[in-house]
Fold this sequence. Notes:
Layout: E1 2-7, E2 10-15, E3 18-23, H1 25-50
Antiparallel strand pairs: 1-2, 2-3
Amino acid sequence: MNTINFSKGELSICHKNNCVNVRGDVAKTIVFFLATLVVISGIASMLAKSN
């Protein structure tokens, strides 16, 4: 099972019982990057549907 958790400045990514914990500014940067990708893909999807 895949899980991604972000709480209190710590990012935890687990895949098949292997977990990686990232703390501090690196975790915030990764979460910001992932959120940016989601927003950009949403905008691209809306533009593709309008054509």
